[in-house]
Design a protein that fits this description.
Layout (H helix, E strand, L loop, with lengths): L9 H9 L8 E5 L12 E2 L9 E2 L3 E4 L13 E8 L14 E5 L11 E4 L3 E5 L2 E4 L9 E2 L10 E3 L7 H9 L4 E5 L3 E7 L3 E2 L10 E2 L2 H11 L3 E8 L3 H14 L2 E5 L10 H6 L4 E6 L3 E2 L5 E5 L2 E6 L3 H19 L10 E6 L3 E2 L5 E11 L2 E6 L8 H4 L3 E5 L5 E2 L4 E6 L2
Parallel strand pairs: 5-6, 13-16, 13-17, 14-15, 17-21, 19-24, 22-25
Antiparallel strand pairs: 1-12, 2-11, 3-10, 4-6, 4-7, 5-9, 8-9, 18-20, 20-21, 22-28, 23-27, 24-25, 24-26, 26-28
């Protein structure tokens, strides 16, 4: 079993797990309109052209472009308006030389029309005649057949995380169902004699269970299905039994607390006893969250997260979240949005350790500022008061006030 003080850099720790992880193969079919955030199980090809007919991109007049060549404000082209093509209807008019029809944004063009003149570039003479004040090029203000998507084109690769625009694009092509990876089920176990349910008034020495619910929310946000198993006391057999039950029902196991070197904290022994290869990492070069445990029980990943809520949430984002996406075969794990901001205070650190420091953002003197929110890792409101996090790399001994830094924003 890896020794606690043989710590891994966070990215090395994650790779140690992912290199051994088997991706999920279970799939299901869901309605496209309910597939937001799901990971596609197969490539999706366009079954038809989009658009399926030439469409106007402007309100104006459908014309034969050659009838407008040479038009100007001083020498306009005169066209006869012979009708309109209503929205949602196919044209029943074919333009002859010197003719035009009224065109609407998104509507079809009259037969033989190959351009649309914007209404701003015309002037009415009477009810059936217009002046065109600028020439139109063939194809101008027109979306051609297949200009957006061509039949047989890959529109969503396998392993894609479906976004709102993907949902719209699939439905635009009549794809009302999509095959996706099953959502990983995550068993969550909180440990500790001092932990009580949030609906219970704690007595001196007791604390309400925070981590079960914050971790469950993070799991759901990352596309998993949380399965809270409840709180288990500091008893080896009780914890092991809970772990066995969790692994039997879920695809991943998370223990909250019990990851330190305290003799009362036995998560590392429990996880290592459940099956090979067992504990892969016990300790990461990171603050907060140094005593984190990473294990693999046959083909199921397991984590021992620190009991302090700030540490647990940060380590989840760092290690558990990408593992959840990896289980589904997601090819591009969504990265946190970042902004550049100027530090208002020094951030101390030690080389050889990656620090994640909470910051609060504000605007001053025309630029974005990041104020560190210092606090111990058992103080949940240091996270609540923060807008994002600044990462101090392993090889830097801190950051100075006035330095412009990237801030990873919280969702």
């Amino acid at each position: 079993m890896p020794e606690f003080f043989n710590v891994f850099a966070p990215d090395v720790a994650l790779r140690t797990l992912l290199d051994r992880l088997q991706r999920r193969v279970e799939t299901t079919i869901v309605p496209t309109h309910q597939a937001l955030g799901r990971v596609t199980a197969e490539v999706v090809l366009a079954p038809e052209y989009l658009p399926a007919f030439p469409r106007s991109t402007m309100d104006g007049y459908a014309v034969r472009a050659r009838d407008t060549f040479g038009a100007s404000e001083s020498l306009p082209a005169y066209l006869e308006v012979v009708g309109e093509v209503r929205m949602g209807q196919a044209p029943d008019i074919t333009l002859a030389t010197g003719q035009a029809t009224v065109a609407y944004t998104g509507g079809m063009l009259a037969n033989s029309a190959d351009a649309v003149v914007m209404v701003e570039h015309t002037q009415k003479i009477d009810a059936t005649s217009i002046e065109v004040l600028r020439p139109a090029a063939p194809g101008e203000n027109v979306v051609q057949v297949g200009e957006d998507v061509r039949i047989g084109e890959v529109i969503v690769p396998a392993g894609s995380l479906l976004r709102p625009q993907d949902i719209g694009g699939l439905l635009a092509l009549g794809i009302t169902q999509v095959k996706v990876r099953c959502r990983p089920r995550v068993a969550i176990v909180s440990t500790g004699d001092e932990i009580v349910s949030p609906d219970i008034a704690p007595t001196p020495g007791q604390i309400r269970d925070i981590n079960t619910y914050t971790i469950a929310a993070l799991v759901e946000q990352a596309g998993g299905v949380p399965m809270p198993m409840g709180v288990v006391k500091d008893d080896y057999e009780a914890q092991r039994q809970m772990a066995v039950e969790g692994l039997a029902q879920a695809d991943m196991l998370i223990f909250s607390a019990g990851s330190s070197v305290s003799s009362r904290d036995m998560t590392v022994q429990v996880l290592h006893s459940l099956g090979p290869p067992g504990v892969l990492v016990h300790g990461i070069a990171h603050r907060p969250g140094k005593p984190t445990i990473i294990a693999l029980i046959e083909d199921k990943p397991a984590f021992g997260l620190p009991g302090n809520p700030v540490s647990a949430m940060i380590v989840f984002r760092l290690l558990v979240r990408p593992t959840l996406y990896a289980l589904t075969g997601c090819t591009q794990v969504p990265q946190p949005k970042t902004v550049q901001a100027r530090l208002t205070k020094n951030i101390p650190s030690l080389t050889g350790r990656e620090d994640h420091v909470q910051v609060r953002l504000s605007y001053a003197d025309g630029e974005l500022h990041a104020e560190p929110v210092f606090g111990k890792s058992n103080l949940i409101y240091t996270l609540i008061r923060a807008d994002g996090v600044v990462v101090v790399p392993l090889d830097q001994g801190g950051l100075y006030a006035g330095t412009e830094v990237p801030v990873q924003l919280y969702d």
